[in-house]
Amino acid sequence: MSSATYYVPEESRWPILASVALFLMAFGAGSLLNALSAEAGGGAGMVTLLIGALLLGLILVGWFGHVIKESQAGMYSAQMDRSFRWGMGWFIFSEVMFFAAFFGALFYVRTLAVPWLGGEGAKGAANMLWPGFEATWPLLQTPDMELFPGPQAIIDPWHVPLLNTVLLVTSSVTVTFAHKALKRDNRGAIKLWLLATILLGIVFVYFQGLEYAEAYNELGLTLQAGIYGATFFILTGFHGVHVTLGTFMLIIIWLRILKGHFDSEKHFGFEAVAWYWHFVDVVWIGLFLFVYVF
Amino acid sequence: MSTLEQTASTGHHHGPAKGITRWLYTTNHKDIGTMYLIFSLVMFMVGGCMALTIRAELFQPGLQLIQPEFFNQMTTMHGLIMVFGAVMPAFVGLANWMVPMMVGAPDMALPRMNNWSFWILPFAFSMMLMTLFMEGGGPNFGWTFYAPLSTTYAPPSVTFFIFAVHMMGISSIMGAINIIATIFNLRAPGMTFMKMPLFVWTWLITAFLLIAVMPVLAGVVTMMLMDIHFGTSFFNAAGGGDPVLFQHVFWFFGHPEVYIMILPAFGIVSEIIPTFARKKLFGYTSMVYATSSIAILSFIVWAHHMFTVGMPLIGELFFMFTTMLIAVPTGVKVFNWIATMFRGSMTFETPMLFAVAFVVLFTIGGFSGLMLAIAPVDFQYHDTYFVVAHFHYVLVPGAIFSIMAATYYWLPKWTGNMYNESMGKLHFWLSFIGVNITFFPMHFIGLAGMPRRIPDYALQFADFNMVASVGAFLFGFAQLLFIYNIVCCARGGKKATDRVWEGSHGLEWTLPSPPPYHSFTQPPKVD
Questions:
Q1: How does DSSP classify residue A288?
Q2: How many Cβ atoms are within 10 Å of B512's Cβ, its own excluded?
Q3: pLDDT band with cut points at 50, 70 and 90 for residue B526
Q4: Residues of chain B neighbouring A73 (CB-CB closer than 8 A)
Q5: What CA–CA distances, in Å, run from B192 to A250, B59, B180, B197, B265?
Q6: CB B177 to CB A91 under 8 A?
Q7: Would you kindly state where each structural domain of chain B is located, as residue ranges?
Q8: What rounded mean pLDDT belongs to chain B?
Q9: CB-based contact (8 Å) between B178 and chain A?
């Protein structure tokens, strides 16, 4: 190993700009939410949030663009490549833990909190708060139906959610086919398989949107509908955001493929996105089982 | 692109840029480490002023200086700033400076992201401090922000607090990923895992803890945000949720978090004691395994913070026994430090004084932790000053003393100059005495039943509170010596040698003092 394996980038403007953008977003979002809750407009907060988001978007394009240029210029050694791999791997682990918090909350309320409210076990004294409350899951009758009107029904897992499961699992397969094609340098096949993955992702998000509309308009399943609605929307919502983000990442990789980037040896950018996509898929399996089916 | 190509073709390593842009745009681990350390010192003083406000109010019973509403904001902000603004950034700053030098790397693995991790922090803490001036005041629910105090009954500024926590989380996760990537990937040839300095080992494990639990903190504040602004009922039993759920998720983050604040301290002390005892560290391998065991156990003990919340008996027992289990690996560490010193040729320069005080006083904090771990006894201690005494013993003469030890230990390496030894010793003795006068009486008033987070108290607690307040001011003002000493050392003084200390060993001491801008351009050989 020679010193050439060490690459330290020169000074960069992106991080400090990104910090400013992040601050504007956070401050804008905070102002907006507080104004909305106080029913006091919120225009200024909205503007700050949008400026911050736009700025962050531009910075990410610039920053990643810079990294792509460096990569295309052949500045990244095998060691640099490994650093990126560790970075992406641990980032995905942090995302796993983020979802773990919400899954943990779901399991806690299902197996402990709601049964205790219903009078079960040593902690069943909690039933004295709302006498007559019966513990069921999914929780359609909340303890206080005025404050948190429970849903009339929940989403049937064997229609749209099942379809979405099939879509997402298929997309994991197609992205793997694209990877295999990339390893064989079969450019035509990569483009097709990646495009298929992107389309499956978009269709998934579309169906998820339809499902949300149904939940809100027909089933009374809302954020305010008690703990079932809360856990349902936080889990599926953050998952949906991740699918959307993953689809954007796939589109960028697809455009890079069209531009002739990546070869059978060096294609970490592609693999990082593929890992992320598989992660999103695995989370969905968990969601399908524990939010919809059981 | 021209600079890009130049860097690529020649492997040319630039020196620092001039002016403010050096600090804004830097990708250098030493610059970023320095910024982390200065930021931490500033936050330490800000949080310290809040602590002194608290102690001034508690000097006598009754309300003298501030109103209870403001007192609550002070306890909350003091905790948040010290944990997230002072201790954690100080350790990340030390890791930035030392890990690349200790493993023989030129820099951190992902230098631009490194800069971003740092620069998020000043913005996050500006937002956090701004809340104090907002309508309804700043966060007033304690640094643990239990629901429903932090949801239903919180001031509007809680929204900004939540976003500030999100920003700190992003910063910590990126910093931790960077440290792991550096340690896994940039070690010099020959430096196997079991040859790594213990500071590197403990930081590797700390980084793992950070990546595992900071997202959980993000999750819990997100649920708070949803409850406050979107009408969900995660922490509201009226909708089938549970306020206790908040505590479970929070402490699932919170307990590993306390080890995030102490494991790097273990690493620092394990570097310093062998140097000044002029002996190899006793039981290196067992230190590594003990640190790992503590980290693993930290995931299954969280509910010992919640013994009085009304858990089923089986839960109380489980969390009591797992908590006590942690005493075993911790005992291994304390034993190893003492065995390292046993029959060593010891000298007591300032870093060593802080390190030895760490071993003694941290152990006191550890023992009071064992007392708190006993569930039935905890019913008496819970939320009293005994708890305050316990965690301040592990955090102030624990974490903070280790940071001061590290500063004195590595300052000659960083600046190329020796600090003023007698001033350092004076700083140590004032701190040591101040800390004990402040926190030791809290054990007594806690056992006697004085609750924490209360601006006024019953008359029988008056004497000890007065003593504690005197100690706090002594400790607080002693830190001015620390700052003065650092500033003098940075500006000049006796030149330091490369080795700096007679008994020092490790790659960082093979570099000149101060080290070159890029530590190792050629990977050094390690046998």
A1: I
A2: 11
A3: confident
A4: 1, 4-5, 8
A5: 37, 54, 15, 10, 22
A6: yes
A7: 24-510
A8: 94
A9: yes
The phi, psi pair for B27, rounded to 5°, reads: -120, 15
Amino acid found at B152: T
Return the SS3 of B230. coil
Tokens of B361: 């006083």
**3-state secondary structure at position B456:** coil
**Of B276, B237, B247, B41, residue with least CA distance to B144:** B247
Question: Quick one: pLDDT at residue B9?
Answer: 36
ω before A151 within 30° of 0 (cis)? no
What domains can you pick out in chain A, each with its CATH number? 1-75 (1.10.287.70), 78-293 (1.20.120.80)
Coil, helix or strand at residue A258: helix
- Catalytic annotation on B463? no
B406, B410, B411, B414 alpha-carbon torsion, rounded to 10°:
-140
Q: Rounded CA gap, B332 and B323, in Å?
A: 16
The burial of A85, by beta-carbon neighbours within 10 Å (0-12 exposed, 13-18 middle, 19 or more buried), is given as middle
B495 beta partners: B417
Q: Using CA atoms, how far apart are residues B472 and B467, in angstroms rounded to an integer?
A: 9
Q: What is the pLDDT of residues B58-82, one digit of tens each?
A: 999 999 999 999 999 999 999 999 9
CB atoms A90 and B177 under 8 Å = yes
Residue B12 pLDDT > 90: no
Residue A165 one-letter amino acid: T
- The residue ranges of DSSP E strands in B98-219, in sequence order, are none
If we measure between CA atoms, which residue out of B87, B219, B88, B78 comes closest to residue B162?
A: B219
Q: CATH for B24-510?
A: 1.20.210.10
B-chain CB neighbours of A101 within 8 Å are 215-216, 218-220, 249, 252
How much is the ipTM here? 0.95
> Bridge partners of B384?
B451
Q: What percent of chain B has pLDDT over 90?
A: 93
B259 is catalytic: yes
CB A265 within 8 A of CB A129: no
pLDDT digits (tens, 9 = 90+) for B426-480: 999 999 999 999 999 999 999 999 999 999 999 999 999 999 999 999 999 999 9
Determine the pLDDT at residue A1.
Answer: 36
Of A86, A126, A227, the CB nearest to B233: A227
Q: Tell me the two tokens of residue B330.
A: 């911790």
In angstroms, rounded to a whole number, what is the distance separating the alpha carbons of residues B74 and B340? 41
Which residue is it, tokens 């997202």?
A: B215
Spell out where A21-77 has E strands.
none
pLDDT band at B518 (very low <50, low <70, confident <90, very high): confident
The Cα B404–Cα B227 span in angstroms is: 41
A249 contacts A273 by C-beta, under 8 angstroms: yes
Among B444, B467, B443, B465, residue whose Cα is nearest residue B454: B465
Largest CA distance in chain A: 74
Whether the predicted pLDDT of A144 surpasses 80: yes
Chain centroid to Cα A29, Å, comes to 19
Helix (H, G, I), strand (E, B) or coil at B417: strand
Q: Is B40 on the interface with A (CB under 8 A)?
A: no
DSSP letter (8 states) at residue B516: P
8 A C-beta contact, residue B337 and residue B270: yes
Cα separation, A271 vs B33, whole angstroms: 32
DSSP B147: T
| Cut 0.80: pTM above it | yes
Burial class (CB in 10 A: 0-12, 13-18, 19+), B194: exposed
